[in-house]
Design brief:
Oligomer: single chain
Radius of gyration: 20 Å
Structural class: alpha+beta
Strand content: 15-25%
Order of helices and strands: HHEHHHEEEHEHEH
Shape: globular
CATH architecture of one domain: 3-Layer(aba) Sandwich
């Protein structure tokens, strides 16, 4: 039987002055507004230490009942990246040509996207994020049983936000890709049945002269409600 006793520890907390708080937030805002989705990657290798450090930041995210229901699969192998690209493009081609509504395609048009996903192969590194819907425990008699995870999608989404922020702060370019459906990732990467693909993040350095769509972000007044 597990020990479920609550044992709190002292909070480690740094109290800042309001000017210090505002300065940090403004600095982070300026940096994050410079982040863009990048589709053109240089072949330069991203050091393992950077990827590991960013994933460690993602792993610090809060999660339902502290279950930490995530797995980050780092893909560098060219053959595996090619398999992922081919499978993703097959699904994306069907999406753009058959599944997507006219309204959806119109929303995507200003971003210049289509079924071609070269970045899945040209980016030096892919981080494929999996959600772990449940853990598998082993009873004393050797039989397996499921351990339920809570708020899985919300928890993994928060961790992905941490990961994207960490990669950007580290000076790396990223993109978020969600091919639909994306069960092929489980097959190619040989993940167990309790893990489901959640997000693919190409990571690398942009090519010289890389271009990105011209976009703007909503203003504070557009996204904030004060009650």
């Amino acid at each position: 039987m597990s020990d479920c006793t609550y044992r709190p520890v002292p909070l480690q907390f740094e109290r800042l002055t309001v000017p210090e708080q505002l300065s940090r937030l403004q600095s982070l805002k300026t940096r994050m507004l410079a982040r863009r989705t990048v589709r053109d990657y240089a072949s330069e290798r991203v050091p393992d230490a950077l990827i590991d450090a960013a994933i460690a930041v993602a792993g610090s995210a809060p999660s339902g009942a502290n279950m930490q229901p995530w797995r980050f699969v780092v893909v560098r192998d060219p053959d595996i990246k090619r398999q992922i690209r081919e499978a993703a493009e097959a699904e994306e081609r069907v999406f753009y040509e058959q599944r997507a509504t006219a309204e959806w395609l119109a929303a995507l048009a200003p971003l210049g996207t289509d079924w071609r996903k070269e970045f899945l192969e040209t980016a030096p590194c892919l981080i494929v994020v999996f959600r772990i819907d449940y853990a598998v425990g082993l009873a004393a008699d050797g039989t397996e049983h499921r351990i339920k995870h809570y708020y899985v999608a919300e928890s993994v989404g928060i961790a992905c936000g941490f990961l994207l922020t960490a990669l950007h702060v580290a000076g790396l370019a990223t993109l978020t890709h969600t091919p639909s459906p994306m069960g092929f990732l489980s097959t190619i990467l040989q993940r167990p049945r309790n893990e489901k693909p959640f997000l693919v993040i190409p990571v690398g350095y942009p090519t010289r002269g890389a271009l990105v769509p011209s976009i703007t972000k909503k203003s504070l007044d557009d996204i904030r409600v004060v009650i």
